[in-house]
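EI: anyone free to look at a 489-residue chain?
SC: sure, send it
EI:
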Amino acid sequence: MLIGIFSLLLFVLTLYYLQIWWKDKQLPPGPIGLPLVGYLPFLGRNPALTYWKLSQKYGPVFSIRIGSNTMVILNSKEAIIQAFSKQARLTADRPYNPVLLEMSRDKSISMTSGQRWKTGRTLAMKFFKNFNKQMIEQIITEESEYLCNALRETGSKPMKDHTLFAKVVINVTCSMLIGTRFSYDDQGLGRLLSYTSQLSDEYDGDILGILLIAPFVRHLPFFKQSYKKLLQGVVIIEAEMDKIIKEHRQSYDKNYSRDYVDFILKELKSSSTLNDKDLIEDQDNYIQTAFDLIVAATDTTSSTLRWCLLALIIYPECQKKISDEIYDVMGSSGKIEMKHQDRMPYTRAFIQEILRYQSPVPLAIAHNTTGEVNIVGFKIPRNTMIVPNLWGSQRDPAIFQNPDEFQPERFIDSDGQFVNNENFVSFCIGNRHCVGEQIARMQLFIFITNIVQKFKICASKNETLPSFNEGVFSIGYSPHDFAVEFHQK
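SC: here you go
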């Protein structure tokens, strides 16, 4: 009896691995991993770096197996363009990932495919296109004043808790999407942070990074508790969103749209440009995408702000150049506006170099092919997971000279003007390009310039700074914790 069961199990496993072998045989060559877990044990704390190193051996496009999932990694800008721009129609879908689906409650426009994704993205893009840019700038500028007041209250003492920077980004996003700004000690803001802070936390962030790459480990005891904690945070946030949606329905005025939720409610009632049946059936899901946008913006933008602060400490010459540029344009107390950025090329170059050097989402989110595609000479079959290594493509020495050195000057031309290098792809490209890129850039410019205008940013004398070349890999990429002092000028 036992021999029969063992023989059957061996037969099933043999068929399973033959199926994997046959599919892998059709894909670009790549490293060989271990049985069951694949290459997972060798990914390290920064899989994007590991993939980039592997590309030196296997080429810009290679396949790799993690657990039972085989994926194709794109490590060059050319490969990313061919996949997501030139063949966008066949590469826009998402692969099945139970962790992302459970975390988003299957309501996220970032994680879905097909008509629901198309409708959700159309709505989001229409909203941001029609939202008054001057109003967005006003929201960010007002929040920067609250931020600077909070920094003054630190009294130049070391600040290691960086949730303040997540709070300012949440407030900007919430002001646009749900018409609400929270005080920094508000309990509602605390509940939002209880979830978003896990995405870049020293421990939970690393765990989530592994869960996203290898969803099967969520069932293992070591990962199970952290995963449960993440899902509990989702339930809390969803309850908050349900309450906000209910309030908006009760106070809705068709003649005055306050925010994204009102915009969606108006679209639901008019449906002049979208499919009526589609909107009616999924109306709560489309409204809940506000939560998706809040989480995505908070994790990536606040992490980038922290990278900026760390760079300003590690490279004091950068801080001085930005400070001098601000003084030349606005003086020590003038109000900084987006219109001034054309006169501040070094500041723009500094932010651009941060985004290149520390890509906000190093591996983006995996795509899935809906038909055969050709990427730099390789035929990739239908239903194949493809992952763009944005971090690696920005470290390509064929595109950026001395890519492992932090050099804002690479984005300044011989006339001293800022140049937006066409090889820059940190916000990805194609149909899944980040819809909030411009708002993120506005926040980075206004927040950083206001902080540098009013404060000298210093390391704490009693703390050791983390490496600028190592971070916490999760959905995004954030620096390790560090203490910082803000000395008022």
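EI: The first strand starts at residue 61 and ends at 66.
SC: 👍
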